[in-house]
Design goal:
Layout (H helix, E strand, L loop, with lengths): L25 E6 L2 E6 L4 H7 L25 E2 L18 E3 L3 H16 L15 H8 L14 H9 L18 E3 L9 H10 L5 E3 L6 E3 L17 H5 L5 E3 H6 L4 E6 L8 E7 L2 E7 L12 H5 L14 E2 L8 E2 L2 H19 L4 E5 L5 H14 L5 E3 H16 L17 E5 L3 H4 L1 H12 L3 E5 L8 E2 L2 E2 L2 E3 L6 H14 L5 H7 L2 H11 L6 H8 L3 H13 L3 E5 L1 H4 L4 H14 L9 E4 L6 H6 L6 E2 L3 E2 L3 H11 L11 H10 L4 E5 L3 H4 L3 H9 L3 E6 L11 E4 L8 E4 L4 E5 L11 H11 L9 H11 L8 H7 L1 E3 L43 E6 L24 E4 L1 H6 L7 E6 L3 E8 L7 E5 L27 E7 L5 H13 L8
Parallel strand pairs: 1-4, 14-15, 14-25, 16-17, 16-21, 17-20, 21-22, 25-26, 26-27, 31-35, 32-34
Antiparallel strand pairs: 1-2, 3-4, 5-8, 6-7, 9-10, 10-11, 12-13, 12-27, 18-19, 23-24, 28-29, 29-30, 31-36, 32-35, 33-34, 33-36
Helix pairs in contact: 9-26, 10-26, 10-27, 11-20, 14-18, 14-20, 17-18, 23-25
Family: In the C-terminal section; belongs to the prokaryotic molybdopterin-containing oxidoreductase family.
Protein name: Formate dehydrogenase subunit alpha
Keywords: 2Fe-2S, 4Fe-4S, Iron, Iron-sulfur, Metal-binding, Oxidoreductase, Repeat
């Protein structure tokens, strides 16, 4: 299949080179008379491909190790006997290889004849016709007829018997259509094992095996009664991508036909930032295929990015602007001009009545950098205030504060490739197998190679123990005690003399280190002293600290389980201290790496979405920084920091904040203390929601501006490794405009004179005003593919590894990490601690994934509770339970599991029917106001169904979503 739109950065083309690339000393050889030099360890097959000689193959693929089973890739080597498989034969100096001869042609045709003899010859009606490697290889070897008959009683015989209406025997394997996204047709399986090996080597799930013998050998998804839906398969699509026939095939291809063109773009789900080929027929998207040259995902994907894109064409999407005078009124569809004029009049009136600081914006971590930049510019250059905030602060602002204070920059230190060189990985407060599955697959591959793992988490996540991996240490700490555990690890490292003194003297502030040592070696920080408080056995904690300090390259990966605490910033500082203590900064395989939750959390921070910082993390109080933007924008920028989201809501209840433009966020479902959020929104006079769907926040909106999906726009996302990736328009916006155009239309309706015609111009403005982006433009991204900031005169090709020769701040700064218990405490009324998280098949508030077939795996939020706690409360598996806290209550079904310890319960927040955040409190991080989602004192008790609040909420939501029929 030809790619009509392939960016210039593609290294050559998208061919499968057969075996992985190698690094090593140069080796020269001759293939079919062509001389070539390749790295030592390269296979003959890959070397041949490098010079344009395609050796036929079926079992080989360049994202897996050579297997050598199909025998189609045989070659002749001068001076050697026999015909070795080119995929498993490494090159040697002076080797002379022949890939074509009469003998080889006969052998390959014979092999292919055997394959075809056990395969249905229905190519004309097969869904893989035109995109089938078996078909291509039959042509490549010149196979024109088959001398053999199909084996009697085998799968092929049964296949034809079924077609003719006869009764097949017991060996017949029916087609498995259980998975919503792909089908499995065993009659077309050639037992090449590529799917099995992809599941093992690429994904690391080990869900597939080969069962049966001889002609009856076929792929199995588990036990005899398992289907692809009920098995351990995680629907990442690696097996589908690996399959050379129509055995494993996307249902979308079966229905729509083989795609004919493709566009390279970036996934809009998590912070991994996977690159995909969006493959189309005309303007109809047929499938998303992970792009092999994507530097974040290296050709892999997860169920969300690979399959869950259908929301973009869901019937629930709103494609026309809507307005209403009161939130109790039904919506009225209008044209864009009327909606924008209505909005501008409302906002002007509010500012005239209540002052210029009475309105603000919320930027999106799902939208592009360019769109986010314009929204914060809207408030600063048009509203003339700094009232801008983002969900990125609600989840990862402690990262910015903690790493900024210790290292001088507000982002992770490594690229994802770095994990291949780590020796010890510590995961704290993150669940990568569910939240960042493509990175988790790369991590699991390194663990299978021998790296050690430490997991610090109240819950036993899949990364603690799953197929072929097991953590050396799982520290199941009590929620809210992160700081105590991290400081105790530092205590062990310091008191046992395991720190790297040379690194600290050279790279860090020695006086600050001395002060820190005096603090951390205090016996009150010893593992034994905190054991009762944290629930972590002292011996385990000591062993984990020793492993991290002495096990070689040590890398720390953390997530929202670190940041969403009242001491989130303190924990990030403690993690930074650990890395400096052990010298694990500034080289491959080490570092401190936040796993960002949404696709552009990093970018929304970079673009100045915080009320106190302009783009590039520079404080608004600094006149020299304001001058840069004042000169670029031709306005005076308010030096006074604006309001964060909680402050906006507080001010709304008080009557001083009255207007909000909310792009691509659903604060009513995602932010803490739902009652307070609802009260604040209800008190405003103009709430503008700019989104794809009528979300929960839109219940309180006066204006709805339809948004565009990632498939309908150009721009860039910045992932968790600081990688700036291109987002390319796959299809025209269904609402008529890309999101940046909508923001520009609103700004101009308010009197601005913005004249952008393409997002590349916005990026040029970002580069001109933001030092870390100074070298970034669309032309260089097209050539390089992607780049990691800082990208400027000092680092024209970007910066994969931070702090190599020195910290951005000059010297690394050790800081005291005093543990202060959260004000949220358990007691007789609320004896359990609730913590929250995500699940693999859903994303954030579920607005996108709930509108796809991913609901098959997770149709509702469930409360995980330990069997002991459940028994005490008379709760059984699947029972409705009431989950109550000091803030509110909700109901959901119970799932009994020992993944959580006694005294701890856990749930997700993907479904608005649950509204899990109605029970979370308004406690927040001391430095950044990041909400404390992960520690809520609760009680669980049996329930008969939804609470009164849930019923009232559902009634109000239904009332607020009425849309008047369009006028005739």
């Amino acid at each position: 299949m030809k790619d009509f739109i392939i960016p210039q950065f593609a290294p050559g083309d998208d061919r499968d080179m057969g075996t992985p690339a190698r690094t090593g000393a140069p080796v020269s050889l001759t293939i079919d008379g062509i001389e070539i030099t390749v790295p030592e360890g390269t296979s003959v097959m890959r070397a041949a491909a490098e010079v344009g000689v395609e050796v036929p193959k079926l079992c080989a693929s360049d994202n897996m190790e050579a297997y050598g089973s199909c025998r189609l890739c045989v070659v002749e080597i001068e001076g050697r006997r026999g015909t070795p498989a080119s995929c498993t034969t490494p090159v040697a100096p002076g080797m002379v290889v022949h890939t074509q001869s009469d003998k080889l042609r006969r052998m390959r045709r014979g092999v292919m004849e055997l394959y075809i003899s056990d395969h249905p010859l229905d190519c004309l009606t097969c869904s893989a016709n035109g995109d089938c490697e078996l078909q291509d290889m039959a042509g490549a070897v010149g196979l024109r007829d088959v001398r053999y008959e199909a084996p009697k009683g085998g799968a092929l015989d049964n296949h034809f018997a079924t077609r003719q209406g006869d009764q097949p025997n017991a060996l017949y394997l029916p087609k498995d259509d259980s998975n919503p996204y792909f089908s499995y047709d065993p009659s077309k399986c050639i037992v090449c094992s590529r799917c099995v090996r992809a599941c093992e080597e690429v994904q690391g799930t080990f869900a597939l095996t080969i069962e049966g013998r001889g002609f009856d050998s076929r792929v199995s998804a588990g036990a005899s009664l398992d289907s692809f839906l009920t098995s351990d398969c995680v629907s990442c699509g690696a097996c589908v991508q690996a399959c050379p026939t129509a055995t494993l095939q996307e249902k979308s291809v079966i229905e729509m036909g083989t795609p004919k063109r493709s566009v390279i773009t970036t996934c809009a789900y998590c912070g991994v930032g996977c690159s995909f080929k969006a493959e189309l027929n005309g303007d109809q998207l047929v499938r998303m295929v992970p792009y092999k040259h994507g530097k974040a995902n290296r050709g892999h994907s997860c169920v969300k990015g690979r399959f869950a894109y259908g929301y973009a064409q869901h019937k629930d999407r709103i494609l026309k602007p809507m307005i209403r005078d009161q939130i109790s009124d039904p919506w009225r569809e209008v044209e864009w001009d009327e909606a924008l004029q209505f909005t501008a009049d409302r906002l002007r009136g509010i500012q005239q009545k209540y002052g210029r600081r009475s309105v603000g914006v919320i930027t999106s971590s799902r939208c592009t950098n360019e769109e986010t930049f314009l929204v914060q510019k809207l408030t600063r250059a048009v509203f003339m205030n700094n009232n801008t905030d983002t969900c990125a602060r609600v989840c990862h602002s402690p990262t910015g504060y903690g790493l900024g204070k210790t290292y001088g920059t507000s982002a992770g230190t490594q690229d994802f490739d770095s994990v291949a060189e780590t020796d010890v990985v510590m995961i704290i407060g993150a669940n990568p197998t569910d939240g960042h599955p493509v990175f988790a697959s790369r991590l699991k591959k390194r663990l299978r190679q021998g790296a050690k793992l430490i997991v610090v988490d109240p819950r036993r996540t899949d990364i603690v123990r799953s197929a072929h991996i097991e953590a050396s240490h799982h520290l199941p700490l009590k929620p809210g005690t992160n700081v105590a555990v991290v400081t105790a690890m530092a205590h062990v490292i310091v008191t046992e003399g395991l720190f790297d003194e040379d690194f600290i003297r050279t790279r860090c502030d020695w006086d600050e280190f001395q002060f820190y040592v005096d603090f951390v070696k205090d016996p009150r920080h010893a593992p034994e002293a905190i054991e009762a408080m944290t629930g972590v056995p002292a011996a385990d904690l000591r062993a984990a600290a020793r492993l991290y300090a002495t096990g070689g390259n040590g890398a720390i990966y953390y997530g929202l389980g670190v940041t969403e605490h009242s001491q989130g910033s303190t924990t990030v500082i403690g993690i930074a201290n650990l890395a400096m203590l052990t010298g694990n900064i500034g080289r491959p395989g080490v570092g401190v790496n936040p796993l960002r939750g949404q696709n552009n959390v990093q970018g929304s921070c970079d673009m100045g979405s915080f009320p106190h910082e302009l783009p590039g993390y520079r404080h608004v109080k600094l006149p020299e920084v304001r001058a840069i933007f004042e000169n670029a924008w031709g306005v005076e920028i308010d030096p006074e920091p604006g309001l964060r989201i909680p402050n906006m809501l507080d001010a709304a209840v008080e009557g001083t904040f009255k207007g909000l433009y909310c792009q691509g966020e659903d604060i009513l479902q995602s932010d803490p203390d739902t009652h307070h959020v609802a009260s604040g929104l209800a008190a405003m006079e103009c709430v503008i929601v700019h989104d794809l769907f009528l979300n929960e926040t839109a219940n309180y909106a006066h204006v709805f501006l339809p948004g565009s999906s990632f498939l309908e726009k150009n721009g860039t996302f910045t992932n968790a490794e600081r990688r700036i990736n291109m987002v390319r328009k796959v299809m025209a916006p269904k609402n008529g405009y890309e999101d940046w155009e909508v923001t520009q239309l609103l700004a101009n309706a308010l009197g601005a004179n913005w004249t952008y015609t393409h997002p590349s111009q916005i990026m040029d403005e970002i580069a001109a005003t933001t030092p870390s982006f100074a070298g970034v433009n669309y032309e260089m991204l097209e050539v390089a593919g992607s780049v990691q900031w800082p990208c400027n005169e000092d680092a024209p090709e970007g910066t994969p590894l931070m702090h190599v020769d020195g910290f951005v701040s000059g010297k690394g700064h050790f800081m005291v990490t005093e543990y202060v218990a959260t004000d949220e405490r358990t007691g007789p009324r609320f004896p359990l601690l609730l913590t929250t998280g995500r699940i693999l098949t859903h994303y954030n508030v579920g607005a996108q994934t709930r509108r796809t077939d991913n609901v098959v795996w997770h149709p509702e939020d469930m409360l995980e509770i330990h069997p002991h706690d459940a028994e005490q409360r008379g709760v059984k598996e699947g029972d409705w339970v009431r989950l109550a806290s000091r803030a509110g209550e909700t109901t959901l079904r119970a799932r009994l599991t020992d993944r959580v310890a006694t005294g701890v319960v856990y749930t997700t927040f993907h479904h608005p029917a649950t509204q899990a955040n109605v029970v979370t409190t308004d406690f927040s991080d001391w430095a950044t106001n990041c909400p404390e989602f992960k520690v809520t004192a609760v009680q669980v008790s049996p329930s008969n169904g939804p609470t009164d609040w849930q019923e009232r909420y559902n009634e109000q939501a239904e009332l607020s979503r009425r849309i008047l029929p369009a006028a005739e």
